[in-house]
Amino acid sequence: MQSSLPMVPQQHAPDAGQAGSYAASTVELGDLKRILVRRRFWIFGTVALLTLVTLLYGLFTPALYSSAAEILIDPQDLQVVTNDVNPSRISPDGGITQVESQVSVVQSTGVLMRAIAATNLTQDPEFNGQGLLSRLLGSASAEGDRSAQTLDALRRRLAVKRADKVLVLDVIVTAKSADKAALLANAIAQAYLVDQASARAKMAKDASESITARLDEQRKRVQQAENAVEAYKSANNMVMAAGNLVSDQELTEINTQLSAAQSRTAALKAQVDQMRRQSGTADATSEAMRSAVISSLRAQEATLVDQVSQLGTELGPRHPSMIAAQQQLRDTRQLIAREIGRIATATETDYERALANQQALEAKVAGMKSKSLDTDQASVRLRELQRDLEALRSVYANYLQRAQETREQINVDSTNARIISNAMPALKKSWPPFSLLLVGAVFGGLGLGTGLALIAEYASPTVLSSAQMQSAIEAPVLGVVPAKSGTGRRWWPFGGSAAAASSQKTDAVVGLALRRMFSSGQRPPDWPLVPSILVTSSPGEGAQRSRVARLLANTAASRGSRVLFIDANGGGSQKDPQPGILDVLRGEYAFEAVSHYAAGSNVAVLGRGRSKAIFQEAHGIYFAQQMLAQASRSFELVVIDGGALADNLNASPLVAMVDEIVLVATLNATPMRDVTTTSQAVSVMGRLPTGALLVDEAA
């Protein structure tokens, strides 16, 4: 059977270029709100679960108490004995690095084992792993295992902290008892001080023993060097006195004597030469003038000269007294001359003796210089041996002094650390922090619940926005219809009250959708078929689809248009259904015979009809063309509730002939896979969706 009517113009379907202009599927801030509202039970359930777990944890977890002891550490140690065993130099950072390293020392095994031994902690079931559960299971640990378990448990309960830019360590211990926590914190702090003193004493003792062990070796090396020096001097006949060679000392002394002899010889020679030049007036020489005998004789001479002069005036030249006085004067002058001669002779004799002594000393010096030249080469080696000996003596003296200092350091504690605040029993428990955990559970539950909601949405995505819907069906979204109407009912019957029941917002959205569908100008002016709209959806959106289809019919009717409403989805469940669209598509009835107007409205209703007989699709398309052509004489619009096309194959002839195919989906409720399935079903029937209407349950 061939159709004499033209087929539906395919330009209504969007082409590839038009489809590519739609926005990609993205999740916006508003979409996120829709997801969270829809998946709110995930969020609230997660919050409730975490809060319940927190409450149970807080009720059944034993309380823990924390106490802290404070230790002040001065990087510069006490200077009791100066040595380099425990250097006290401060690093450029003010000792912060040195103090920071003490955090690890406090937590070291040695310090903790001292504290464990001091408090007998291996017998405490809280720390030794021998709690109630272990006793019930009958397990017993060896002493070594118990110590290891106690050490491990104490480390888990210990925290050593240092505040920024301070040299104070906080030793914090947590236990089930406040008194026990304070006791352990103080024990660890005291054990740290004892450990540091012991470590420094051990370092000093080890250094002292090491140095003492080297003393015997150094002493032997000094003795060997001394023997080598003495043997070398004996072999080379080098006698030492006061640290110098005797030959060198003799040469020095003789040189000194020679210099003195030369000076004396020169002085005596000058005296002799002077006397020889003043032979007539020898008494004018310095030697004569210094002579006491000559001075006495000169005084007698002067007295006699005065006496002779006086006698000559009084007695005359021939007077015996005058003659006696003159004779005495002559004798005195002879004595002066003889004394001067004696002085001259003695001076010459002294000069000759001094010259002889000088010559003898010069000969001796010449001999000793010759001998000294022979010992110069031997002295070079001797000085080298002596330098080695002095170096060994210096090292030996340093070793001896350092050994004594380190022995004294063993008994002196130079650690400059002290406990500035002993731990006190805590007044409040430190764990569990009930309020903090509760707040964390609430906010953590909100975050985790939100994450789970987003994961659930990603695993099963729903229609979130118009842009996402447009990208999925490659057709425009004609509008978003509020899910709630003024009467609170899901959809309305046809009649005069239907338009009034629809809210103003819903009426405006549906009216704009109708104008968008038929205002594009793509429908030819002389098109013989009545304008038609087929409304479809996924199987789960039946109620919203029927409501939207009836809203389209009611809105068009409220604007004065005569509307034919075809319900291709309903009536199939009745035992004896009335003839409807399926009967028309099989050619058994004319649509005028089976359609009827709703009371008080411009809407004519055509039901589903009987589906017992099967018709060919080509026959159905022909009769659909005839129906739409005939309807153009009585109606301005045909609205078809096509049902879920993926399940309603009987609507295929209508899909092929209608102008607009509108998909209905609910925001944040309709799964995207259902939208894709419905769009593919339309495509299999030879068409593409031309638009979509979304239902917003939040509006």
Structure description:
The chain contains 23 helices and 14 strands. An eight-stranded mixed sheet has the order 7-14-13-8-12-9-11-10. Strands 2-3-1-6 form a four-stranded antiparallel sheet. A hairpin with a 5-residue loop joins strand 2 and strand 3 (168-175). 30% of the residues are buried. The protein has 699 residues and is α/β, with parallel strands linked by helices. Residues 1-5, 9-25, 486-491 and 496-501 have low confidence and may be disordered. It has helices at 16-19, 29-38, 40-60, 96-106, 109-119, 125-128, 132-137, 143-157, 178-235, 246-277, 286-290, 292-314, 320-410, 434-459, 466-473, 496-501, 504-518, 542-558, 581-585, 591-594, 617-631, 652-657, 672-684; strands at residues 65-73, 158-162, 168-175, 240-241, 244-245, 417-421, 477-482, 532-537, 563-567, 596-597, 603-606, 637-643, 660-666, 691-696.
Keywords summarizing the entry:
699 residues; single chain; alpha/beta; 23 helices; rod-shaped; 58% helix; 14 strands; disordered N terminus; four-stranded antiparallel β-sheet; eight-stranded mixed β-sheet
Topology diagram in text:
Elements: H1 16-19, H2 29-38, H3 40-60, E1 65-73, H4 96-106, H5 109-119, H6 125-128, H7 132-137, H8 143-157, E2 158-162, E3 168-175, H9 178-235, E4 240-241, E5 244-245, H10 246-277, H11 286-290, H12 292-314, H13 320-410, E6 417-421, H14 434-459, H15 466-473, E7 477-482, H16 496-501, H17 504-518, E8 532-537, H18 542-558, E9 563-567, H19 581-585, H20 591-594, E10 596-597, E11 603-606, H21 617-631, E12 637-643, H22 652-657, E13 660-666, H23 672-684, E14 691-696
Parallel strand pairs: 7-14, 8-12, 8-13, 9-11, 9-12, 13-14
Antiparallel strand pairs: 1-3, 1-6, 2-3, 4-5, 10-11
